[in-house]
């Protein structure tokens, strides 16, 4: 007999797959074989639930920074934890309620992976709620995801849940006897009923067992610790089965020596579709190239990016690429909405530098060719754009993670392409071993340990020491070095003194201060337009910072990008700024350096060029090249675009 199943979703996920989960749950309500009435509750109004035997609560929960729940789930998780240990509620407070839980997390955050999902499952069980099936886990880390992606993890769990839901709709009894200890179900009928309901037996599909996670294994481990290592003979078979599965899981997903078949092309279908939809041309297994909006703008004679104003880059001849789309941070203001994977070390198939550069240039040229005949495109700039002169290694991810980054940079210089490399200050040794580049950037997104943790959400546990060591390594470089500060209103604009101390540590040649770019709504970030500072606010911040730095002064401004440049006084000669780059001179110097085996070194002052008057701070052009024509928006809203 089919009865009504009321599924309430307590959803606090901040992942981009929220709509996917919701769509699936709505799909349940349309299926005649489940006859389910689905209600989605994202506000976690748990007190409104009427716990009956005809209800199944589906919990979709995400683990955020430091193993904590997301902001809109903090109160619920705190209440549930306290209720599970509060004698006033009693151990049977949720008796009669049935539930299923699916947790979202990233296994790169060692020690905090899916903590919230595990805790919610544990606390519900402690209040006598009954699981209808084991907890599912979705891993955003494609390398260790048991199904290849978080979507596939959810799909595998969803398939099992749907089978269980259909069985319940047919009136089948619950599989658990209710006599579990510590949440570990040892009912021998469990496996028999699972087979009768159409679930594959563990003997036939032992590999699929790896795809489902519950508190059972964790509780069993706890129980073993309490009762010692003595095992009854009749229990030996089940114990050996668990050990065998654990060994398989450890070998396949967590072993250090990874076989060639397990060296993943992380550009699977899910990542490929996400990146392709936002304009990426993907190269090999870990690289990409994308046409910058400022490249398009300068092709039309509508102005270049701030690097054109500050350093003389020809934006229409600049290729934006990266040999590593993976990153070691998950910054809250990431322009790419976390469509790329994260990691602390290289673990993918590695493409040769020659292949990456060749395909990057070819893809870039093909994207430029698409502008042939487009109204407004200047013919001479179109032809120039086909010849790449600059390479901005700042697309997304962490290019310095690529093991052959030095080979890649040498190939760029051999083609007389200048190199602008950006790193997130988490790889100090790689910075020290880096060959000379035209300009080396370090992202300084915060000035204190707590704010850096909150903004960048780094994967490394020793992220702050790595950050400081990276700044120190930058100070050892002889070529042009830059601190890149991104101002996020209400996050990091009140830390002037701490910023000044960090600048003293690395002694960069330049400091770029830019207001955060708003990239639209993202369920992976809580930033809104309210966090984007006005240009006047950025100018005020930079002026205050300059007052605290006796060796620096505001040199340039690019109002359109909401960006200013602080430069060291050594670049001001006879009252005039020399922040631009003599690119031909740099190519001569780097060639001499390579031919001498690194003995003929050079410094930042060896390849400077004079900054034009229109680019200097205080000029009426405010950083816009007068040889181009600026097109203003008809409305006066903030320009949310950026490079």
TrEMBL record:
Residues 193-208 have a biased composition (Basic and acidic residues). Its cofactor is [4Fe-4S] cluster. It is an enzyme of class 4 (lyase). Pathway: tRNA modification; wybutosine-tRNA(Phe) biosynthesis. Residues 176-227 are annotated as: Disordered. Pfam families: Flavodoxin_1 (PF00258), Radical_SAM (PF04055), Wyosine_form (PF08608). GO terms for biological process: wybutosine biosynthetic process. It catalyses: N(1)-methylguanosine(37) in tRNA(Phe) + pyruvate + S-adenosyl-L-methionine = 4-demethylwyosine(37) in tRNA(Phe) + 5'-deoxyadenosine + L-methionine + CO2 + H2O. InterPro entries: Aldolase_TIM (IPR013785), Flavdoxin-like (IPR001094), Flavodoxin/NO_synth (IPR008254), Flavoprotein-like_sf (IPR029039), rSAM (IPR007197), rSAM_sf (IPR058240), tRNA_wybutosine-synth (IPR013917), tRNA_wybutosine-synthase (IPR034556). Keywords: 4Fe-4S, Iron, Iron-sulfur, Lyase, Metal-binding, Nucleotide-binding, S-adenosyl-L-methionine, tRNA processing. Residues 1-162 form the Flavodoxin-like domain. Residues 311-555 form the Radical SAM core domain. Its EC number is 4.1.3.44. One of its GO terms (molecular function) is FMN binding. The keyword Iron-sulfur applies. Residues 179-192 have a biased composition (Basic residues). Belongs to the TYW1 family. Probable component of the wybutosine biosynthesis pathway. Wybutosine is a hyper modified guanosine with a tricyclic base found at the 3'-position adjacent to the anticodon of eukaryotic phenylalanine tRNA. Catalyzes the condensation of N-methylguanine with 2 carbon atoms from pyruvate to form the tricyclic 4-demethylwyosine, an intermediate in wybutosine biosynthesis. PANTHER family: S-ADENOSYL-L-METHIONINE-DEPENDENT TRNA 4-DEMETHYLWYOSINE SYNTHASE (PTHR13930), S-ADENOSYL-L-METHIONINE-DEPENDENT TRNA 4-DEMETHYLWYOSINE SYNTHASE TYW1-RELATED (PTHR13930:SF0). This is S-adenosyl-L-methionine-dependent tRNA 4-demethylwyosine synthase TYW1.
């Amino acid at each position: 007999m089919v009865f009504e199943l009321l599924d309430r979703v307590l959803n606090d996920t901040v992942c981009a797959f929220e709509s996917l989960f919701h769509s699936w749950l709505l799909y349940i309500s349309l299926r005649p074989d489940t006859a389910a009435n689905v209600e989605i509750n994202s506000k976690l109004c748990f007190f409104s639930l009427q716990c009956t035997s005809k209800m199944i609560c589906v919990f979709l929960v995400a683990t955020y920074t430091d193993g904590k729940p997301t902001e809109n789930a903090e109160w619920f998780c705190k209440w549930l934890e306290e209720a599970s240990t509060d004698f006033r509620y009693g151990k049977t407070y949720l008796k009669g309620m049935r539930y299923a839980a699916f947790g979202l997390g990233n296994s790169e955050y060692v020690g905090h992976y899916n903590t919230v999902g595990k805790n919610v499952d544990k606390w519900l069980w402690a209040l006598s709620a009954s699981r209808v099936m084991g907890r599912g886990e979705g891993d955003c880390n494609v390398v260790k995801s048991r199904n290849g992606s978080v979507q596939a993890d959810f799909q595998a769990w969803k398939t099992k849940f749907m089978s269980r839901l259909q069985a319940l709709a047919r009136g089948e009894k619950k599989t658990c006897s209710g006599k579990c200890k510590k949440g570990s179900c040892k009912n021998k009928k469990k496996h028999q009923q699972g087979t009768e309901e159409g679930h594959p037996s563990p003997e036939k599909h032992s590999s699929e067992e790896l795809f489902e996670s519950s508190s059972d294994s964790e509780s069993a481990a706890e129980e073993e610790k309490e009762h010692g290592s003595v095992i009854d003979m009749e229990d030996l078979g089940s114990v050996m089965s668990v050990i065998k599965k654990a060994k398989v899981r450890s070998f396949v997903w967590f072993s250090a020596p990874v076989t060639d078949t397990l060296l993943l092309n992380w550009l699977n279908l899910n990542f490929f579709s996400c990146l392709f939809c936002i304009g990426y041309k993907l190269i090999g297994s870990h690289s990409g190239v994308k046409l910058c909006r400022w490249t398009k703008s300068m092709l039309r004679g509508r102005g270049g990016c701030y690097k054109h104003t500050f350093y003389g880059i020809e934006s229409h001849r600049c290729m934006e690429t990266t040999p590593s789309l993976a990153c070691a941070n998950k910054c809250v203001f990431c322009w790419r909405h976390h469509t790329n994977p994260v990691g602390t070390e290289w673990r993918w198939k590695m493409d040769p530098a020659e292949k990456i550069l060749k395909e990057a240039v070819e893809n870039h040229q093909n994207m430029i060719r698409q502008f042939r005949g487009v109204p407004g495109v200047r013919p001479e700039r179109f032809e120039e754009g086909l010849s790449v002169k600059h390479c901005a290694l700042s697309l997304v991810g962490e290019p310095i993670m690529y093991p052959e980054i030095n080979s890649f940079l040498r190939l760029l210089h051999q083609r007389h392409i200048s190199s602008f490399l950006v790193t997130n200050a988490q790889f100090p040794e790689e910075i020290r071993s880096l060959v000379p580049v035209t300009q080396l950037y370090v992202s300084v997104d915060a000035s204190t340990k707590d704010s850096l943790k909150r903004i960048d959400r780094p994967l490394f546990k020793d992220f702050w020491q790595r950050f400081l060591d990276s700044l120190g390594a930058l100070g050892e470089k002889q070529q042009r070095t830059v601190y890149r500060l991104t101002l996020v209103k209400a996050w990091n604009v009140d830390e002037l003194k701490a910023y000044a101390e960090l600048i003293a540590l690395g002694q960069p040649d330049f400091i770029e201060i830019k207001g955060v770019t708003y990239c639209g709504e993202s369920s992976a970030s809580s930033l809104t337009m309210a966090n984007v500072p006005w240009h006047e606010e950025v100018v005020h911040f930079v002026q205050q910072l300059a007052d605290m730095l006796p060796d620096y002064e505001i040199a340039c401004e690019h109002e359109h990008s909401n960006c200013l440049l602080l430069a060291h006084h050594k670049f001001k000669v006879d009252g005039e700024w020399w922040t631009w780059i003599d690119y031909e001179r740099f190519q001569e110097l780097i060639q001499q350096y390579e031919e001498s085996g690194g003995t003929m070194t050079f410094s930042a002052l060896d390849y400077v060029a004079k900054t034009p008057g229109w680019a200097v701070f205080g000029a009426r052009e405010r950083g816009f090249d007068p040889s181009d024509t600026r097109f203003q928006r008809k409305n006066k809203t903030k320009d949310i675009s950026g490079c």
